[in-house]
Automatic annotation (TrEMBL):
<protein>
    <recommendedName>
        <fullName>Chromophore lyase CpcS/CpeS</fullName>
        <ecNumber>4.-.-.-</ecNumber>
    </recommendedName>
</protein>
<dbReference type="GO" id="GO:0016829">
    <property type="term" value="F:lyase activity"/>
</dbReference>
<dbReference type="InterPro" id="IPR012674">
    <property type="entry name" value="Calycin"/>
</dbReference>
<comment type="function">
    <text>Covalently attaches a chromophore to Cys residue(s) of phycobiliproteins.</text>
</comment>
<comment type="similarity">
    <text>Belongs to the CpcS/CpeS biliprotein lyase family.</text>
</comment>
<dbReference type="GO" id="GO:0017006">
    <property type="term" value="P:protein-tetrapyrrole linkage"/>
</dbReference>
<keyword id="KW-0456">Lyase</keyword>
<dbReference type="InterPro" id="IPR018536">
    <property type="entry name" value="CpcS/CpeS"/>
</dbReference>
<dbReference type="Pfam" id="PF09367">
    <property type="entry name" value="CpeS"/>
</dbReference>
Amino acid sequence: MDITEFIARSIGHWRSQRSVHHLAFGHFEAVQSEIEIVSLRPEDSSVLDLCQTHSIDPQTVSSPFRMTWEGQSDWDETEVLAGSCILVPVPDPQTPNRGQLIRDQGYAETMAAVGDYRITEDNAFILVTAYDRAAAEEKIWFINPNLRCRVSCIKTSAGTGVVTASFSTEIRQET
């Protein structure tokens, strides 16, 4: 599987159940979310802006998309977790199962981010992103076309300590 196929399989509306362990606080959190993943054209102005910000040739991108989410946590039931970000994969021309993923908003910190991805032989997508104060590692794989799993780990920026670990199941919803 390459990044184009992985993104194509990810397009849609997903219901997510995530278990989060905040190791620094000794706290467990359950989060239920709705996630919408839609493809974008490479010539979309938001994609072009992101490419320009990171000095990326728009001709080298593959399957850009927007991910929007809205969720509820049992940690603070009054707070609605919501957001949206643009994600632009830039495959490595020498190694098609590797590349960079550019985001206008990161996972561990709310800032623009560039991560390195690879797709393993068993079709798992692995993304490692360094931020100013943290580093994130994510792994996403499909159980079947309508069920995927995600694990993530937020580490200290030096990579010496785990701050947060989570596991999600995401089920595609009929539209």
